């Protein structure tokens, strides 16, 4: 099954708002009264995908939870650029934890709320890919395994950006980071390492797992809204380009994210209780080169000489995703 | 002073204290750009703007916007050659927006609903217009809207010019012409029918006119002699088409040949076909690829049974036949005789070889410069060499079409108005073009163009009923919504949504947006993700 898209012959169906659609079908981001959970004045880089992804997800969560939520944040860019003391860009109840323990802190808050019989409050934990797939992974798995009533949001910018672009378990093959330099026989991040945390989450059999991208706002908001309506452990993995770490033009943040989806490298899907239930189809398929060529972290693949083997391997990953998740149906 | 907690030296604050706007080297600004459709429209319509209203189903607003530039949308929606659609950016994606079909829908709605436009208070100025074709009607309309008194002198028995006495009914029903002319009259424009002007200065003095606009059209047919054929059996296209409007049908033989390869030849052939004559043959000296007629018109004529004899010259004839010589095209595409002759049966010939302006009587008016081909010279304000006398339409050099005449009528009206006020009309500076490369087409839904219904072939061949039908309300709405709104914000909220710094301020539904430069870091995402290219990134000057 694939997600149904609104079919409406007119301009702007894919835009954030649309004056011709009724309000309910427009995005939360198009609303005058959106929370702006992460407000202006934060110190994220120009064109930061993570700042954007966090505001998208949390504004949708605020609306879906009737403004009753608490967010716990792991250390990482999102925490550092939003809250250098004494300033805070957060306009929601927000709590900083450590790099590795956000899921555990959120589990604790969920337990406290249960003890207080407050079933009206949603608990969210969020962190970068490093915090999620590497250092906080044990706490996260525990949170899943106990089915704690927490929605975990991972903002995946595919490396440890806050500390200066070091490789994480979510860094894609061949990508240059400061710990996987583009030198030697196999430049960049080795292929075959790393882990796919959405699939690991799925393997825990928790009520809801989804992937989302800043490039598809309608899809992202729908998934967050759906997750808020579910109890138990939930996980959403959001793809957020980092202009600094990826070496992309800040103006291209959306474009880069969109090409990741359209090439098949970042599949958008949803799973319930361990089973993939639907995926979002690719609208205009592109070869992976279109995505890679916009980022200097992959520059070494384009030579001269061009690393055709590496490019073919990346294309094979995309094709595999397309087949596995039925992205071209 | 309140005490801060232990080990805390600063009061908590919001990030709004941190003006990240000072990081900026480039800054976004909202712009309006000139869509290619608007740019290409000879009548200067703001197509994007009226489609914007039509998209919302606000048809009267759409029509009012359209009427600012063109007083005859129902006519133009039918007969305009729509260069706007050839220029439309949507053509690079799938098919151009069917602008003429929506225009026609709005024009027909206006007629059905009796919509009216408002006029400015009377100025007391009095303008003479000669000729009630599109040029004259357009000028009269615009001058009337500006509050001037206008009287049109028209030689013919009815108004419309070539829209009535040239373009056949099956393309432009006369009720449509009547309705749009009547609306202009209802604004206070007087049309004096059957009153040919042959002494311009006398007419101006008599009517105490402060200025005049000439739009006489081009009605003198170019003729050739055909040896052996009685001149009575040789008609010309303008006479034939004009006679089609009279009570008695023009006298023709059994087999009719039309000489010429332009749209007029096609119009004549298809009209003859509808009179029950057969077969109808078009003879043209060059081939299909070199014929000035539109390919679509040729195909439609062929569908209706019109036959074509390409690369033929009429050499001579007799009572019932024509001798034609086969031609061959040289390198320049010019037809050259081959010396091979053949005979075809035909007992009437209609010449469709073009028309020229009948402007002989204007040679007497001092200051006016009449060219050898009969056209009158005008300057950039449409004024002739004689101050206060303006001209436009087919009688001035340049492209000839209903829409060009209508556009020149508007332009002339603006300059006549300025002339009457003793000032000069200053054209507002045109916006920069809204090119296709500035669009982010990702955001537009795929949608093929709507098709207008066509009359079936049997009815087409046997009646003068209108061939092309109008769009119904639902289809017209969908068609309007195919517009990409090139270069002009359509309130999609994308910029407001994609700014990572929440630095775009939404001013309210339909009120567009502003940038909060205190926080905008100048990343350029808003400009990149604006579907229609309504945001420019410009260098920051500090
Ligand atoms: C068969 C045919 C088909 C055409 N089809 C199309 C089409 O589909 N689309 C398109 O855009 N264009 C078409 N055209 C061209 C278009 O009709 C003309 O370019 C347009 O009508 C010119 O407008 P006008 O106002 O300059 O002149 P006209 O429409 O010719 O009007 C001039 C008027 O002035 C009057 N007049 C002339 N002399 C005097 C005088 N001395 N005193 C008083 N009144 C006078 C005439 O009677 C006439 O009514 C077609 C032309 C022909 C011949
Ligand atoms: C236990 C511990 N180790 C290391 C750090 C230093 N540190 C802070 S953030 C960070 C990387 C964050 O990476 P990620 O979670 O991917 O978030 P990003 O900054 O990329 O958004 C590291 C290594 C720390 N704060 N705590
Ligand atoms: S898409 Fe709309 S605004 Fe753009 S050229 Fe076509 S009609 Fe004009
Ligand atoms: S997206 Fe925001 S920060 Fe970036 S240029 Fe536009 S207004 Fe400025
Ligand atoms: S992004 Fe949308 S709302 Fe913003 S300027 Fe462009 S058309 Fe207008
Ligand atoms: Mg990271």
Question: Could you characterize what this model shows?
Answer:
The complex is a heterodimer of chains A (329) and B (542). By secondary structure, chain A is an alpha/beta fold. Chain A has eleven helices and nine strands. Chain A has one domain: Thiamin diphosphate (ThDP)-binding fold, Pyr/PP domains (Rossmann fold). Helix content of chain A is 33%, strand content 13%. Chain A has an eight-stranded mixed sheet, with helices on both faces. Chain B has 542 residues and is of the alpha/beta class. The relative contact order of chain B is 0.17. The mean pLDDT of chain B is 94. Chains A and B meet through α1, β2 and α9 of A and β1, α17 and α18 of B. β2 (87-88) of chain A pairs parallel with β1 of chain B, so a sheet runs across the interface. Magnesium ion binds at residues 128-130, 157, 159-161, 168 of chain A.
Summarize it.
Chain A has 11 helices and 9 strands. With 329 residues, chain A is an alpha/beta fold.
Task: Give a quick set of tags describing it.
heterodimer; A: 329 residues; alpha/beta; 8-stranded mixed beta sheet; 11 helices; 9 strands; B: 542 residues; 5-stranded parallel beta sheet; 18 helices; binds flavin-adenine dinucleotide; binds magnesium ion
Largest sheet of chain A, order of strands side by side? 3-1-4-5-7-6-8-9
CATH class of chain A: Alpha Beta
Strand content of chain B: 15-25%
Mean pLDDT of chain A: 94
* Fourth-tier CATH superfamily name of chain A: Thiamin diphosphate (ThDP)-binding fold, Pyr/PP domains
The low-pLDDT segments of chain B are none
Please give the order of strands in the largest beta sheet of chain B. 5-4-3-6-17
How far apart, in Å, are the first and last alpha carbons of chain A? 9 Å
Number of domains of chain A: 1
Query: Mean pLDDT of chain B, nearest integer?
Result: 94
Number of helical segments with 4 or more residues of chain A: 11
Q: Determine the CATH topology of chain A.
A: Rossmann fold
User: What distance lies between the first and last C-alpha atoms of chain B, to the nearest angstrom?
Assistant: 38 Å
Shape of chain A: globular
**Can you count the beta strands of chain A?**
9
Main sheet record of chain B: 5 strands, parallel
**Main sheet overview of chain A:** 8 strands, mixed
The interface involving the most residues is between: A-B, 51 and 54 residues
Strand percentage of chain A: 5-15%
């Amino acid at each position: 099954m694939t997600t149904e898209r609104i079919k409406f012959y007119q301009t702007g169906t894919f835009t954030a708002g649309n004056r011709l659609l009724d309000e309910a079908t427009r995005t939360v981001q198009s609303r005058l009264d959106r929370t702006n959970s992460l407000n202006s004045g934060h110190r994220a880089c120009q064109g930061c995908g993570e700042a954007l992804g966090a505001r998208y997800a949390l504004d949708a969560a605020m609306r879906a939870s009737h403004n009753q939520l608490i967010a716990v944040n792991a250390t990482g860019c999102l925490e550092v650029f939003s809250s250098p003391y004494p300033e805070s860009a957060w306009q929601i109840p927000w709590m900083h934890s450590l790099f590795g323990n956000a899921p555990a802190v959120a589990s604790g808050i969920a337990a406290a709320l249960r003890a207080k019989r407050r079933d009206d409050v949603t608990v969210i934990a969020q962190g970068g890919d490093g915090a999620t797939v590497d250092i906080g992974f044990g706490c996260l798995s525990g949170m899943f395994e106990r089915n704690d009533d927490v929605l975990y949001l991972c903002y995946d910018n595919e490396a440890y950006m806050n500390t200066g672009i070091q490789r994480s378990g979510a860094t894609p093959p061949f990508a240059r980071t400061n710990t996987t330099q583009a030198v030697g026989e196999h430049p960049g991040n080795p292929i075959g390492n790393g882990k796919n945390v959405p699939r690991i989450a799925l393997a825990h059999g928790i009520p809801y797992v989804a992937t989302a991208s800043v490039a598809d706002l309608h899809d992202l908001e729908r998934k967050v809204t759906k997750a808020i309506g579910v109890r138990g452990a939930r996980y959403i993995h959001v793809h957020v380009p980092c202009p600094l770490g990826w070496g992309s033009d800040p103006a291209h943040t959306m474009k880069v994210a969109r090409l990741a989806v359209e090439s098949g490298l970042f599949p958008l899907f949803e799973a319930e209780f361990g089973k993939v239930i639907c995926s979002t189809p690719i609208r205009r398929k592109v070869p992976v080169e279109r995505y890679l060529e916009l980022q200097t972290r992959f520059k070494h693949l384009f030579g001269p000489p061009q690393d055709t083997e590496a490019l073919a391997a990346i294309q094979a990953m995309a094709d595999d995703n397309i087949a596995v998740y039925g992205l071209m149906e | 002073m309140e005490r801060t907690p232990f080990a805390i030296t600063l009061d908590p604050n919001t990030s709004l204290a941190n003006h990240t706007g000072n990081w900026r080297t480039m800054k976004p600004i909202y712009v309006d750009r000139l869509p290619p459709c608007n740019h290409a429209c000879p009548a200067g319509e703001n197509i994007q703007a009226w489609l914007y209203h039509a998209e919302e189903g606000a048809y009267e607003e759409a029509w009012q916007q359209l009427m600012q530039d063109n007083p005859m949308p129902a006519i133009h929606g039918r007969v305009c050659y729509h260069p706007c659609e050839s220029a439309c950016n949507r053509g690079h994606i799938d098919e151009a927006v069917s602008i003429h079909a929506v225009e026609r829908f709005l024009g027909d709605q206006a007629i059905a609903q009796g919509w009216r436009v408002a006029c400015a208070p009377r100025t007391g100025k009095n303008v003479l217009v000669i000729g009630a074709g599109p040029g004259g009607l357009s000028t009269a309309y615009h001058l009337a809207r500006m509050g001037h008194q206008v009287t049109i002198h028209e030689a013919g028995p009815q108004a419309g010019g070539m829209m009535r006495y040239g373009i056949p009914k099956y393309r432009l029903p006369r009720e449509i012409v009547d309705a749009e002319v009547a609306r202009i009259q209802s604004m206070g424009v007087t049309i004096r029918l059957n009153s040919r002007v042959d002494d311009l200065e006398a007419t101006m003095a008599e009517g105490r006119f402060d200025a005049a606009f000439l739009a006489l059209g081009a009605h003198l047919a170019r003729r050739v002699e055909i040896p052996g054929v009685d001149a009575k059996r040789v008609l010309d296209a303008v006479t034939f088409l004009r006679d089609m409007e009279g009570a008695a049908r023009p006298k023709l033989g059994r087999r009719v040949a039309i000489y010429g390869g332009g749209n007029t030849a096609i119009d004549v052939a298809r009209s003859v076909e509808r009179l029950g004559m057969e077969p109808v043959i078009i003879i043209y000296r060059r081939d299909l690829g070199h014929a000035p007629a539109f390919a679509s018109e040729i195909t439609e004529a062929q569908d209706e049974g019109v036959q074509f004899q390409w690369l033929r010259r009429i050499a001579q004839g007799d009572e019932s036949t024509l001798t034609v010589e086969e031609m061959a095209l040289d390198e320049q595409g010019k037809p050259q005789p081959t010396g091979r002759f053949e005979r075809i049966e035909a007992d009437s010939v209609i010449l469709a070889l073009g028309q020229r302006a009948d402007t002989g009587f204007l040679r007497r008016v001092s200051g006016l410069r009449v060219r050898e081909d009969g056209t009158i010279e005008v300057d950039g304000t449409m004024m002739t060499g004689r101050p206060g006398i303006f001209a436009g339409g087919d009688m001035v050099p340049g492209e000839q079409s209903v829409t060009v005449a209508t556009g020149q009528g508007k332009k002339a009206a603006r300059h006549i108005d300025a002339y009457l006020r003793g000032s000069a009309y200053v054209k507002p500076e045109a916006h920069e073009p809204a090119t296709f490369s500035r669009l982010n087409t990702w955001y537009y839904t795929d949608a093929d163009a709507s098709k207008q219904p066509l009359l079936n072939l049997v009815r087409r061949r046997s009646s003068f009923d209108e061939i092309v039908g109008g769009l119904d309300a639902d289809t017209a709405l969908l068609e309007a919504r195919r517009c990409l709104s090139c270069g002009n914000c359509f309130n999609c909220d994308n910029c407001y949504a994609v700014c990572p710094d929440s630095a775009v301020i939404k001013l309210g539904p339909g009120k567009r947006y502003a940038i909060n430069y205190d926080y905008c870091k100048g990343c350029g995402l808003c400009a990149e993700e604006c579907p229609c290219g309504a945001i420019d990134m410009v260098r920051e000057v500090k």
